[in-house]
Amino acid sequence: MNLVNQSFEIGLEVVHEIKTTQAEALEQAGKAIAHAHAKGHRFFVTGSGHSHSVAEEFYGRAGGLAFVVPMMPTELTLTEHPTKSSYIENLDGYGKILVELFDIQSDDVILIASNSGRNPYPVEVAVEAKLRGATVIAITNVKHSMQTEPRNAHHKRLLEVADIVIDNCGQLGDAATYFEGIDTPMYPTSSIANAFICGAISVVCASELATLGQPVEVFISANVDGGFEKNEALIKKYARLYTK
Q1: Cα angle at 196 between 190 and 197, to 5 degrees?
Q2: Helix H or strand E segment including 232
Q3: Could you give the domains of the chain?
Q4: In the 8-state DSSP scheme, what is residue 164?
């Protein structure tokens, strides 16, 4: 098998495993978000490092739900320095500050993406959100998380705190396999997995909202005729969700 085909097979195997093992959790997540939104509560998304892309996958994109509230400070991204987000993610107290700033409340829903699920930021956000009565959804790598020790003040893994856990079905260290002549594993699968997971949750949520008789408002591409104007109207409509 050539390397291109081998790479595709690795990714497809992970997606298939998610499809066959995580369907119930994906349904639960989508419906939890829908019911919260229908009752006037908010849906937050957050992540650090490459898991930050999960929040971006949900927010402000074509085919994405318009009411998503991103909790995406630039400190948690890779845009300024490759290790900055790792340092920030390991600061005790930072997660609690963001939960307070975004004023997460009872019956809100927050989705936290963290491949390892062991560091202070994701665990702290989960703990603090639950203390306020919010529902916590986790997207995490169960195999990796269970083979590493928590390194946060709560001595918990994200999957041990969350109400709904979605496994991205990755390997320890995320990189999926070794290739001939290379002594370090390559082909991380979390990004591929997370994109499929986000899409499935969004579709389930939208369908449940329609079943409940609620409007389903979705962004379209800003690069089709009328797209920018429609999206601007949705952003203005849901701007209230970003404030206390």
Answers
A1: 80
A2: helix 227-237
A3: 20-242 (3.40.50.10490)
A4: E
pLDDT digits (tens, 9 = 90+) for 119-175: 999 999 999 999 999 999 999 999 999 999 999 999 999 999 999 999 999 999 989
- Name beta bridge partners: 43: 68, 109
The SS3 of residue 129 is helix
DSSP-assigned beta bridge partners for residue 109: 43, 135
Tell me, what's the pLDDT at 77? Answer: 79
Q: What is the amino acid identity at position 73?
A: P
* Token pair for 21: 């093992």
pLDDT at 244 over 70: no
In the structure encoding, which two tokens stand for residue 52, read together? 């930050």
Q: Assign 135 to helix, strand or coil.
A: strand
The count of C-alpha atoms lying within 13 angstroms of the C-alpha of 90, restricted to the half-sphere facing its C-beta, is: 8
The helix/strand/coil state of 65 is: strand
- Overall residue count recorded for the chain in this entry: 244
- What is the bridge-based pairing of β-strands 186-188 and 175-177? antiparallel
- 140 and 109 Cβ atoms separated by less than 8 Å: no
User: pTM above the 0.85 mark?
Assistant: yes
Within 10 A of 152 (CB to CB), how many other CB atoms are there? Answer: 21
Instruction: Tell me the per-residue pLDDT of 34-51, one tens digit each, with 9 for 90 and over.
Output: 999 999 999 999 998 888
